[in-house]
Design goal:
- With about 250 residues, the protein is of the alpha+beta class.
- The protein has one domain: Sortase, Chain: A (Beta Barrel), CATH 2.40.260.
- It is built from five helices and eleven strands; from the N terminus they run H-E-E-H-E-E-E-E-H-E-E-H-H-E-E-E.
- The strands form two sheets. It has an eight-stranded mixed beta barrel with strand order 3-4-5-6-10-11-8-7.
- A hairpin with a 7-residue loop joins strand 1 and strand 2.
- About 35% of the residues are buried.
Length: about 250
C-alpha cells in the first residue's frame, strides 16, 4: 500500500513565515498611518485660537489651523471632536474626480489601507448646512477613529457626554447628542431621499426612535427632535456586520 506523502516541514515553516511577514507589514503600515494622523492632530491644535471675522456676527474662535493641515491633504473640510472619547479627527470629502467612498480605505497621504479617514460623502455640503449630514469612520480594534463612539453604549457615559463639536474653516458647530442606536445597514441618505424635505427628516427620526431605549440604545430624555432642525449622524461599524452604530446629534441654535 502506497504511503501518503507528507508535506515537508521546511515548506510548512516557510509558508508560515511568509503569512506572518505579510501580516506584520499590514500592521506596520496601519501603525505608520496612525502616527501620521496623530502628527496632523498635533499640528492642527498647535496654532489654536484662529480668529475668523464673520459679517454681522460675533467673532468666532476656531481651534483648528485649517491652512496648515490642508497642506497635508486639501480634501480636509472640517474637524470633529467628541469630548470624553478619542474622536478628535479631520473630516475629509473626496474630490469630484475621486470615488465617493475613497477615504473609507485610503489614508491622509492617499495610501490604501487602514485606518482610512473620517469622511463625508459628496452628497453632503462641506459646511454642514444640510438638514442631515452623515459622517463615516472605521471602528478600529485599537480604539482609534470612530471606535470611541461605542462608549455611548453605556447610559452613564451617554448622560455625562451629551455634546460634540464640528469645526469648519468659518464656524464652530455644537451638537446635542439625542440618540445612540444600533441601526440597520441601510444607506441612510439614499433611503431617505437625500433629506430633500422635512418629511424625509421626520421619517428618519421616527425610524430612529422606533428602536427604543435598550441595553445599548439610548435617547436624550430632555430633547425633543424636530424635523426643522439640522442633524449630524456619526456612523461606524457595529459588532454585527448587518448593523451600523449611530451617534446622532442635533445642532444647537447659535
Amino acid at each position: 500500500m502506497e504511503k501518503k506523502r507528507r508535506m515537508p516541514v521546511v515548506f510548512i515553516m516557510t509558508a508560515f513565515v511568509i503569512v506572518l511577514s505579510a501580516f506584520a507589514v499590514v500592521k506596520y503600515r496601519e501603525y505608520q498611518n496612525q502616527l501620521h494622523m496623530e502628527e496632523v492632530q498635533e499640528m492642527a491644535y498647535l496654532l489654536s485660537g484662529v480668529q475668523v471675522e464673520l459679517p454681522k456676527k460675533e467673532e468666532v474662535v476656531i481651534p483648528i489651523d485649517f491652512g496648515e493641515i490642508r497642506k497635508e491633504n486639501p480634501d480636509i473640510v472640517a474637524w470633529v471632536c467628541v469630548p470624553g472619547t478619542t474622536v478628535d479627527y479631520p473630516i475629509l470629502q473626496s474630490a469630484p474626480d475621486m470615488e465617493e467612498d475613497y477615504y473609507l480605505e485610503h489614508n491622509l497621504d492617499g495610501s490604501p489601507g487602514y485606518p482610512g479617514c473620517i469622511y463625508i460623502q459628496k452628497m453632503n455640503q462641506a459646511d454642514f448646512c444640510d438638514a442631515v449630514t452623515v459622517v463615516y469612520g472605521h471602528n478600529m480594534k485599537n480604539g482609534t477613529m470612530f471606535a470611541g463612539l461605542h462608549q455611548f453604549e453605556d447610559r452613564t457615559f451617554f448622560d455625562e457626554n451629551d455634546t460634540f463639536e464640528i469645526y469648519t474653516p468659518t464656524s464652530v458647530l455644537s451638537y446635542q447628542v439625542i440618540a445612540s442606536v444600533n441601526y440597520d445597514n441601510r444607506l441612510i441618505p439614499v433611503f431617505y431621499h437625500f433629506f430633500q424635505t422635512t418629511s424625509d427628516v421626520a421619517d428618519f427620526l421616527d425610524d430612529l426612535y422606533a428602536y427604543g431605549e435598550g441595553e445599548k440604545n439610548h435617547f436624550a430624555e430632555a430633547v425633543k427632535p424636530d424635523a426643522m432642525d439640522r442633524y449630524v449622524i456619526l456612523s461606524t461599524c457595529s459588532e454585527h456586520s448587518k448593523n451600523r452604530w449611530l451617534v446622532v446629534g442635533k445642532q444647537k441654535q447659535e
